[in-house]
Write a sequence for this structure.
């Protein structure tokens, strides 16, 4: 049996939008751990502090143009099994996230 290709989606979100983003991403099929336990809605969260400065043409959800902003955010890490699931999870994130441009990363994982 061939190994399943796995990805990790990592994103940052204000605490008030955490539940909506996770719900949308889980509905897209992410957060399922392959194996006999049938685990779903798996993720890891870390509270932190982000910063950004909106440019001249930005439409920020939080803050003002050209002003450095500091915000409490949650870093979320979610497993995605298969490229289609990873792409669907990113699309769900973009639709559910309140920021104009959500910060996210996708990593292809190796199986050792």
């Amino acid at each position: 049996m061939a190994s399943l290709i796995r990805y990790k989606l990592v994103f940052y979100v204000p605490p008030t939008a955490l539940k909506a983003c996770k719900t949308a991403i889980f509905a897209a099929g992410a957060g399922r751990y392959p194996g006999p336990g049938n685990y779903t809605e798996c993720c890891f969260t870390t509270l932190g502090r982000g910063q950004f400065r909106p440019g001249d043409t930005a439409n920020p959800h939080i803050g003002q143009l050209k002003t450095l902003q500091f915000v409490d955010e949650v870093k979320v890490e979610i497993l995605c099994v298969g490229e289609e699931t990873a792409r669907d999870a990113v699309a769900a994130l973009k639709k559910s996230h309140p920021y104009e441009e959500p910060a996210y990363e996708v990593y292809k994982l190796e199986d050792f």
About this structure: The mean pLDDT is 94. Helices lie at 18-27, 83-96. The first strand starts at residue 6 and ends at 13.
